[in-house]
Specification:
With about 325 residues, this protein is α+β, with helices and mostly antiparallel strands. It is about 35% helix and about 25% strand. The strands form 4 sheets. The chain has an 8-stranded antiparallel sheet. A 3-stranded antiparallel sheet has the order 3-5-4. Helix 7 packs antiparallel against helix 8. It is globular.
């Protein structure tokens, strides 16, 4: 038998050996409601049992983060920090400590435009009930908003506040952390093609076998329209918009992204999308443009290697970082 024919035969025998495994390989998908949002997991697995087990681990991981970092659960570690932080240094798990520390680093990077202590005012809003604080309530609570008054002790992994009335809320970064945590679990299982999403925060492993994942950025006023579509491979992406949690009153939109300096809804963009290597980066940076405005936020993001952005202004203009600007 010639070398060429022998090579072809060996290739066919190898393919025949792989056919039983390939016959069972497929995409597995599941949705769940965790962390007050929609969780979506899609991954490629060679066996159903392995695929379903991987998805179950992701969702359980999301629930564990929620149990630790939710401000809606009185027994969570974050709730204990908010209840006791102005009185004493509160011990926390290393995971929570690291997320708070990363939050403060985003505050430093953005000059305070991202500030988890916004919750000192933010807790006064109830978007479902269409309730907002009065000017007097905002003025009274606003001194509690200052990330520099959060004190971390790395040796003891404790958190404390420098003044009473302070609260922190990790809603602007915890979902990104949960997505990254889930991705690490999938990678440890050998998953090479997957997407994990928590609300507007997503991270992708690999591609769709030679094709990128295509992600659309929705129009702020119409969920059925998109302002642009972006092909993605091995990356993270977060989109924040003033249409997520809000209510309108007398022509004013009150939404959940607050300006730390005023305690009121920030309105310098309608939508902000960030792309980077981790979902914590994209989640933390996606709120910045609402406070600083698109142009100032672009200046910050252009200085960070590997990070890109798309902003939709109140006038409907779409702005891109240099790495994403469409060809002319």
């Amino acid at each position: 038998m010639s070398g060429r024919r022998g090579g072809v035969l060996r290739a066919w025998l190898l393919l025949a050996a792989l056919l039983p495994a390939l016959a069972h390989a497929e995409w597995f998908r599941r949705e769940a409601a965790v962390m007050g949002t929609r969780i979506y997991v899609e991954l490629w697995a060679e066996e159903a049992a392995a695929g379903e087990a991987a998805i179950a681990e992701v969702i359980e991981s999301m629930r564990a983060v929620d149990e630790m970092m939710s401000t809606y659960k009185p027994e969570s570690q974050l709730s204990r920090v908010n209840a006791r932080g102005a009185l004493e240094a509160v011990p926390v798990d290393a995971e929570l400590f690291d997320v708070i520390r990363a939050s403060l680093e985003f505050s430093r990077l953005t000059g305070g435009a991202f500030d988890v202590t916004y919750a000192s005012v933010g807790y006064l809003y109830d978007y479902r009930a269409r309730q907002r604080p009065t000017d007097a309530q905002i003025s009274k609570a606003l001194p509690g908003v200052n990330w520099r008054n959060v004190r971390l002790d790395p040796a003891a992994t404790t958190v404390r506040f420098d003044r009473p009335g302070m609260r922190i809320d990790l809603g602007g970064i915890a979902k990104g952390y949960a997505v990254d945590r889930a991705i690490r679990l999938l990678q440890a299982r050998g998953v090479a093609h997957a997407v994990v999403s928590a609300g507007g925060d997503s991270r992708i492993i690999g591609d769709r076998f030679g094709r990128p994942w295509i992600v659309g950025i929705r129009h702020p006023d119409d969920p059925k329209r998109v302002v642009t579509r972006i092909p993605l491979v091995d990356t993270a992406m977060s989109t924040s918009g003033d249409y997520e949690r809000y209510f309108d009153e007398d022509g004013v939109r009150y939404h959940h992204i607050l300006d730390p300096k005023t305690g009121r809804s920030a309105s310098k963009v309608r939508s902000a999308t960030i792309l980077a290597s981790t979902a914590m980066q994209t989640d933390g940076l996606s709120k910045t443009a609402f406070v600083l405005g698109a142009e100032e936020a672009l200046k910050i993001i252009e200085r960070i290697p590997g990070v890109d952005a798309v902003f939709v202004t109140p006038e409907g203009k779409v702005l891109y970082t240099k790495g994403l600007q469409p060809a002319q």
